[in-house]
């Protein structure tokens, strides 16, 4: 029997803050409870993911949703309902992205929320890319997604302390220093600026972990 299935490739691109501001557009997703935290749209973006968890679920060329979940007590109580809503918006997603979280004393639910979502996504999303746990106390990630070209544009900013200059991920080295764990789905492509980061050069990013 002939296999007519089509394999789709999502693009994940890290850019500078100035480059991100130029392409930022679509529907905005926020983290506060008086604004949309979960949204189904063709194009969307979210900013300032710090101790929160952000990302999205995608069926390429068909539908996509993004989210930005605050690591507060209310979302801890509502976790099951949030998860049900996610997979109601996009049923049987083929691709997913998960990013964020910090291990800080004052934010005990941050990494618990990330790991709970990660566990659920691993079970239900065949192609999952993740950027787990910001390693700098002063760091944040912004993202934009476009369904038209199946591209996640990410901007991760960081600094060593509150008085230091803010930097962006501009190389593999700075990317590794910003996240504890990086996992790229088999079918996804990773770019930093205009340079593609190839699996043959950095197999650890595509390894099962």
Descriptive overview:
The protein has 209 residues and is α/β, with parallel strands linked by helices. It has a single domain (11-205), classed as 2-Layer Sandwich (60s Ribosomal Protein L30, Chain: A), CATH 3.30.1330.200. The chain is 22% helix and 37% strand. The protein has helices spanning 17-23, 73-77, 79-89, 110-124, 172-178; strands spanning 11-14, 27-29, 38-40, 43-49, 53-59, 63-69, 95-100, 127-134, 138-146, 151-159, 167-168, 179-183, 189-192, 195-197. β13 (189-192) and β14 (195-197) form a beta hairpin. The longest helix has 15 residues, at 110-124. The chain starts with 10 loop residues before the first strand and ends in a 12-residue tail after the last strand. The model has no long low-confidence stretch (mean pLDDT 94).
Give me the CATH fold name.
60s Ribosomal Protein L30, Chain: A
Total domains: 1
Instruction: Give the distance, in angstroms, between the N- and C-terminal Cα atoms.
Output: 33 Å
Beta-strand percentage?
35-45%
Largest sheet: 8 strands, mixed
Q: Give the C-alpha Rg.
A: 16 Å
- Helical residue percent band: 10-25%
**CATH top level assignment:** Alpha Beta
User: Overall 3D geometry?
Assistant: globular
* Protein structure class: alpha/beta
Number of helices: 5
SSE blueprint and pairings:
Elements: E1 11-14, H1 17-23, E2 27-29, E3 38-40, E4 43-49, E5 53-59, E6 63-69, H2 73-77, H3 79-89, E7 95-100, H4 110-124, E8 127-134, E9 138-146, E10 151-159, E11 167-168, H5 172-178, E12 179-183, E13 189-192, E14 195-197
Parallel strand pairs: 1-10, 1-13, 2-4, 7-8
Antiparallel strand pairs: 3-6, 4-9, 5-6, 5-7, 8-12, 9-10, 10-11, 13-14
